[in-house]
Write a structure and sequence with these properties.
This protein is an alpha/beta fold and 211 residues long. It has a single domain, classed as P-loop containing nucleotide triphosphate hydrolases (Rossmann fold). It contains seven helices and ten strands. The chain is globular. It binds adenosine-5'-diphosphate and magnesium ion. Adenosine-5'-diphosphate binds next to helix 1.
Length: 211
């Protein structure tokens, strides 16, 4: 589904060198590492949002940083699901409106079961700006699951959630990956969440090491 080869990136100082990673159907991958080690940067590079200084990312056989804008937009819409640390919901709109915009773009139906499991079915008509951080996070997770992506990229997706809700969110994502033969790439601080994934990596000393 994804092949990354020889990825290198730096800002004012080196971040990582020669990172190689393949993602296959039903893979669930956790990346751990101390704050500032470059985990979010790596996630942005793999998910088409930041071009690496060198190296290549193939998704669904396509060299994503060589695609034109139209092809890249289509790949993001149809193939990728992103749960970022910041939620990127439209703040002036309700939770329901945010979900509708997304399902309309991806031409998928609104999935009531997802709303119930994430316990957001009762807050759908509130403006996003009035929701708690955890509720906003769950709306953004619902939005991503409903568009039925092949690969889900999630950056600390359970950071704002209590233990029980975090557990439910993770069960949903793992279940989704199994059912759809998709894949999950997750950045987390939580060793317990990493332990639920099939593969674990640590980003340290500029290298991505499998555990
Ligand atoms: N767009 C950027 N421009 C310059 N420096 C950045 C940018 N994004 C991240 N950094 C720096 O790169 C380092 C790694 O950041 P990040 O990938 O967010 O790490 P992590 O997610 O592991 O905490 C940090 O020191 C951060 O300040
Ligand atoms: Mg980060």
């Amino acid at each position: 589904m994804l092949h990354a080869t020889s990825l290198c990136h730096h800002f004012d100082y080196p971040l990582f060198n020669d990172v190689n990673l393949s993602i296959e159907p039903k893979d669930t991958i956790a990346v751990l590492g101390v704050s500032g080690s470059g985990k979010s940067t790596l996630l942005h590079i793999l998910s088409s949002f930041m071009q690496p200084k060198s190296g290549q990312v193939l998704i669904d056989g396509k060299d994503i940083y060589a695609l034109d804008e139209t092809a890249l937009t289509a790949l993001r819409r149809d193939y990728l699901g992103l749960i970022f640390q910041q939620h990127y919901l439209f703040r002036g709109f309700t939770a329901m409106e945010n979900l509708k915009i997304s399902t309309m773009l991806s031409q998928e139906a609104m999935d009531e079961a997802i709303l119930k499991r994430l316990k957001i079915d009762h807050i759908l008509h509130q403006p996003v700006s009035e929701l708690s951080g955890g509720q906003q996070q769950r709306v953004s997770i619902a939005r991503v699951l409903m568009k039925k992506p092949s690969i889900i990229f999630a950056d600390e997706p359970t950071g704002n959630l209590d233990r029980e809700t975090a557990g439910e969110v993770m069960r949903m994502m793992h279940g989704y990956v199994e059912e759809t033969s998709g894949a999950l790439f997750i950045v987390t601080h939580d060793q317990g969440i990493a332990d639920q994934c099939k593969r674990q990596f640590v980003l340290e000393d500029g290298a991505l090491k499998e555990r």
